[in-house]
Amino acid sequence: MELLNLPKHVAIIMDGNGRWAKKRNLPRTAGHKAGASRVKEIIETSGNLGIKSLSLFAFSTENWKRPEKEIKNIMKLLEYYLKNNSDDLKDNGIRLNILGDLSKLSKSLQEEVNLALLKTENNDKMILNIGLNYGSQDEIFRAMKKTLEDFIDQGKDPLTISQEDFENHLDTKGQDMVDFLIRPSGEYRISNFLLYQCAYAEFWFSDILWPDFTKEKYMEALDEYSKRQRRFGGINV
């Protein structure tokens, strides 16, 4: 499949793991494991296609409301993924970037995150953003506070803060805004994911559950994006 118009920044809400497991009379943890195994293929495909940023929503600020056992299993999977795939990310030119506040995560997971960040910090083929304890409203609030703090510390007038100043304090600093947001699982909302960055994103929703979101389905979604005309508030000429 030849794609003539690829997005620079793709965001994916990886949803449907629990329902995938339930349909198979399996525990929810089995769904999360199946979903985690899908991640590597989508990252590899994105890098090979030349996409510059891929943002994956792994764990939200609201997900702490889930049962403690499920949260622990998700965190173990995240830690396992980073421990076993950070070298591949490094070798494939992919730079890891974390969206969210890591302070609530376990010490061991924070250590794996920081090690992977260090290993991949000089890569420039693609940026892989992973949302960990991430919520867009929280990100915007943190960015606003940090921008104000920096201006006050530097003796600058906060009333002179520019849009660029603010965007430089977002978790996606230096990256393009989201062009294309994908959400499998049959839900039609973006669930507090990259609200600012998705201002003019194209959306693609599907009933496919995340563990079944294959490379072929991903290519179908990208093919649909390539045929859309984006106007950014203007009109087609």
Description:
The protein is of the alpha/beta class and 237 residues long. The chain has one domain: Decaprenyl diphosphate synthase-like (Undecaprenyl pyrophosphate synthetase, 3-Layer(aba) Sandwich). Helix content is 43%, strand content 15%. It is built from seven helices and six strands. The protein has helices spanning 17-23, 28-49, 68-91, 107-120, 136-153, 163-167, 215-226, and strands at residues 9-13, 53-60, 94-99, 126-134, 180-183, 202-205. It has a six-stranded parallel sheet with strand order 3-4-2-1-5-6, sandwiched between helices. Helix 1 crosses helix 2 (28-49), helix 2 (28-49) runs parallel beside helix 3 and helix 3 (68-91) packs parallel to helix 4. The longest helix is centred in the middle third of the chain and has 24 residues, at 68-91. It is globular, with a radius of gyration of 18 Å. The two termini are 28 Å apart. Catalyzes the condensation of isopentenyl diphosphate (IPP) with allylic pyrophosphates generating different type of terpenoids.
Helix share of residues? 40-55%
Principal-axis shape: globular
Percent strand: 15-25%
CATH class: Alpha Beta
C-alpha Rg (nearest Å): 18 Å
Structural class: alpha/beta
**Could you give me the name of the CATH homologous superfamily?**
Decaprenyl diphosphate synthase-like
The total domain count is 1
**CATH architecture call:** 3-Layer(aba) Sandwich
The run of helices and strands is EHHEHEHEHHEEH
Biggest sheet: strands side by side, in what order?
3-4-2-1-5-6
Note the gap between the termini: 28 Å
Low-confidence stretches: none
